[in-house]
Amino acid sequence: MGSAFSRFAVHGDTMASGKEMNGKNWAKLCKDCKIMDGKNVNGTDVDIVFSKVKQKSSRVITFNEFLQALQELAPKRFKGKSHEEAITAMYQLVEAGEPRKFGVTKAVKAGGVERLTDTSLYTGSHKERFDESGRGRGREGREDIVNDSGYVSSYKNEGTYDAKMRDEK
């Protein structure tokens, strides 16, 4: 029981010690372990029990308060069973539960996205911005960079001197 408590207590918080659980993680535990079923126990019930078992000025519950909260929800969740059977069934739900990761972002591969991001299909000036492997060329792909590496102050561009001399002859 303690391992399930600490699994959910540290979920989403790198600074958490695992000895106390906040209201958000309590609600997540109730949802992921299927304590909330939408009929007998809903989100409001979970929040009310959390507020009832925690200390007045506290925003978290300890392990003992956690056990007390489960005992309060057990008869409501398992209506046809005796109090002891309901608590045992509640403990089994919590021990089997793991924090689930809902809505983890994945790369979209639907529709025309592949066509839009395939750099081999680009045309015109956009074609020059990527090399054969699809990597961007950076500034080199966006601008015509002049090679002004000559030692003469009025040097215009590499290779222009020879053309100029031919035109004058």
Automatic annotation (TrEMBL):
Read off the lineage from the record: Eukaryota, Metazoa, Chordata, Craniata, Vertebrata
Its primary localisation, in coarse terms, equals cytoplasm
Q: Name one GO molecular function term.
A: tubulin binding
The family note in this entry says: Belongs to the TPPP family.
UniProt superkingdom = Eukaryota
Keyword Translocase tagged: no
InterPro entries found in the cross-reference section: EF-hand-dom_pair (IPR011992), TPP/p25 (IPR008907)
One GO CC term on file: microtubule
Region Disordered, as annotated, extends over: 126-151
* Full protein name: Tubulin polymerization-promoting protein family member 3
Compositional bias (Basic and acidic residues) at which positions? 126-145
Q: Which organism is it from?
A: Hippocampus comes
Q: Tell me which UniProt keywords the record has, alphabetically.
A: Cytoplasm, Cytoskeleton, Microtubule
Q: Name one GO biological process term.
A: positive regulation of protein polymerization
Which parts of the chain are coiled coil?
A: none
Subcellular locations according to the entry: Cytoplasm, Cytoskeleton
